[in-house]
C-alpha cells in the first residue's frame, strides 16, 4: 500500500485505539486551552447582541458546537471563533425575540379556567346517574369485565385468566357493556 507524502503510517489494532484515545484527549485539552484563552473576548462580542445575561450561554453553545463538529481540518482561529459567536448570538437573540413575542400575546384570560355553569353541573350529574344505572343493569359477568377493564386497568388477557373465560369472550362482553353505556348516556332525562 502506498502512502501519500505527509500521511502517517497505518496503526494496527490496539495501537489504533490507543492513538484515537490520545488524539481525543489532545483535542479536548486543545479546546479547553482555547476556551480559557478566548472566552472573555467572545463573551464581550456576544454581550453586544444578547446582553450580559445570555453571553456566557452563547459562548458555551459555540464551544459545544465546535466540540461536536470539529475535525482536524478545521483551523480554529480567533476570527473563526468571533464569527461563530456572532452568528450564535444572533440565533439566541432571534429565539428570545420569538419567545417574548409569543408570551406577550398570551392574556390572563387564556390561563383562567372556564367557569362551569350550574346547568352544566346538573346535566353532567344526570348523565353520570344514567351511566351508573346502565352499568348496574348489565349482567354480572359483563359488569365484572367492564369494571375490571375500565376501573382497574386490567387487560383483556388478564380478565380472561381471572374470570376463566377466553379473550374473545372478554372482547364480546366489553362491546356489550360499551353499547349499553352509550345507549344509557344518550337516553333522555327520564331514562
Describe it.
The protein is built from eight helices and no strands. The protein has helices spanning 13-50, 52-69, 78-105, 108-111, 118-136, 140-150, 156-163, 167-186. The longest helix has 38 residues, at 13-50. The mean pLDDT is 83.
Mind sketching the topology for me?
Elements (H helix, E strand, L loop, with lengths): L12 H38 L1 H18 L8 H28 L2 H4 L6 H19 L3 H11 L5 H8 L3 H20 L5
Helix pairs in contact: 1-2, 1-3, 2-3, 5-8, 6-8, 7-8
Q: Let me know the largest β-sheet.
A: none
Radius of gyration: 34 Å
Counting DSSP E segments of at least 2 residues, the number of strands comes to 0
- Average pLDDT confidence is 83
Low-confidence stretches: none
Through-space gap between termini: 90 Å
Order of helices and strands: HHHHHHHH
What descriptive keywords fit this protein?
8 helices, 191 residues, mainly alpha
Compose a concise summary of this entry.
The protein has 191 residues and is mainly α.
Amino acid at each position: 500500500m502506498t502512502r501519500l507524502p505527509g500521511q502517517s503510517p497505518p496503526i494496527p489494532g490496539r495501537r489504533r485505539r490507543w492513538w484515537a484515545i490520545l488524539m481525543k484527549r489532545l483535542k479536548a485539552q486543545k479546546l479547553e486551552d482555547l476556551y480559557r484563552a478566548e472566552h472573555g473576548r467572545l463573551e464581550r462580542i456576544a454581550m453586544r447582541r444578547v446582553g450580559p445575561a445570555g453571553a456566557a450561554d452563547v459562548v458555551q453553545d459555540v464551544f459545544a458546537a465546535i466540540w461536536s463538529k470539529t475535525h482536524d481540518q478545521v483551523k480554529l482561529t480567533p476570527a473563526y471563533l468571533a464569527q461563530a459567536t456572532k452568528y450564535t448570538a444572533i440565533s439566541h437573540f432571534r429565539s428570545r425575540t420569538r419567545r417574548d413575542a409569543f408570551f406577550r400575546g398570551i392574556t390572563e384570560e387564556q390561563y383562567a379556567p372556564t367557569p362551569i355553569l350550574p346547568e352544566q353541573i346538573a346535566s353532567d350529574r344526570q348523565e353520570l346517574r344514567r351511566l351508573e344505572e346502565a352499568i348496574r343493569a348489565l349482567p354480572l359477568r359483563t359488569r365484572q369485565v367492564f369494571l375490571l377493564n375500565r376501573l382497574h386497568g386490567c387487560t383483556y388477557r388478564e380478565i380472561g385468566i381471572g374470570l376463566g373465560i377466553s379473550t374473545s369472550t372478554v372482547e364480546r362482553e366489553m362491546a356489550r357493556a360499551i353499547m349499553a353505556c352509550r345507549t344509557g348516556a344518550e337516553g333522555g332525562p327520564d331514562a
